[in-house]
Amino acid sequence: MQELTDYILQIGNINKQQIELVESKTAILDLKKDAYFSEAGLIPKRVGFVLEGVMRGCYYNNKGEEITRCFIGKGNLVVDYPNFEANTASSEYLQACTDCKIIVFSKTDWEELSNTIVGWDVIKNKMVQQCLYQKSRKSPVISQDATTRYLAFLKNYPSFANRIPLAYIASFLGVTQQSLSRIRKNIR
Amino acid sequence: MQELTDYILQIGNINKQQIELVESKTAILDLKKDAYFSEAGLIPKRVGFVLEGVMRGCYYNNKGEEITRCFIGKGNLVVDYPNFEANTASSEYLQACTDCKIIVFSKTDWEELSNTIVGWDVIKNKMVQQCLYQKSRKSPVISQDATTRYLAFLKNYPSFANRIPLAYIASFLGVTQQSLSRIRKNIR
DNA sequence: ACCAGTTTTTACCATATGGTAAATGATGTC
DNA sequence: GACATCATTTACCATATGGTAAAAACTGGT
Predict the structure, then answer these.
(1) pTM beyond 0.85, yes or no
(2) Same domain as B84, residue B10
(3) What are the backbone dihedrals phi and psi of residue A169, each rounded to the nearest 5 degrees, phi first?
């Protein structure tokens, strides 16, 4: 739980009592590999914070191919926030790539904390923003070639390459698995 | 100026007096085509809101090629917000693709409004978030082929294709200008 | 209207990546 | 430990895109 506290403190000022209040609203969720945290077509009802493991966002394109849109490692929020806020159906799955441990806020608690903690609104928004910045900084750059994108992936997510199926990484980078396999071979 | 008011009202509650206060802090900036709103290497000092014209974010990669990272049309914020907030040097240029009219907040005003308007913080953050959502929704999808990406671009930015140099669009989509020219030809 | 400079198109070949298929390697279950 | 299942690698050819170069079409200034 300390991880969440650290994360919050790095963002805004909040005292010990308030932190306890925040923590009292959380639950710990253990997700097995491949389990979903939220699903496409459903309205997201909770916010997660990854303590252990790797999550991913993914969807199925019009050819039925499964595309990984992002990876989410520990110390990050896992939620489809636009649809969470708007109470609209998500268009992607949030799935555990490995066994995961996640701190969970229900939507009610996440929002009601704004009434009990002055400044929670600001902290909330900053957390979401940081999350978005991360995602965009770590997204593959479309103007780079596949090898460069894979090397950048290795830098951005040093511990992921061995833990995560090649197919997930390939679709994240916008190449086929065969291409990625070839790229791996050429690198060493 | 009405455009900004509409934008703000759609995000949060704010009364007429407060709107006037916001407006009193703004200035109108006319940018000629190709002029910069902010530059790589400099600390961004202001937030813009596009009234007319098209802006873009761009940078030079390690091969010296100019890459367009995003387009910003009217009714959107134009600012490198992470570096604006952190007082750190930007890594990209924000440049006018066409003659532009922009509403400008200085950093001081943008931040001080939080002291005079209750809830400005929340509005501010929501504006930035919306901006980020837009950008990510309208970004080319790396797993799609170049033609599909161009067709999506035409949908996302219906009025841009004729107004903006091919080279800008090409680097945004991650293809060479020659390829994009060929794609255009094959489409009709 | 002309010219210089820029942008866009076209052409040609080289190359990276995709598609299909099969072989190899890993993993978990009984 | 044997087997079925799934993930990864390899091979082969097809194709989209890149690179270089030149031609054609615009653009703005005089």
Answers:
(1) yes
(2) yes
(3) -65, -40
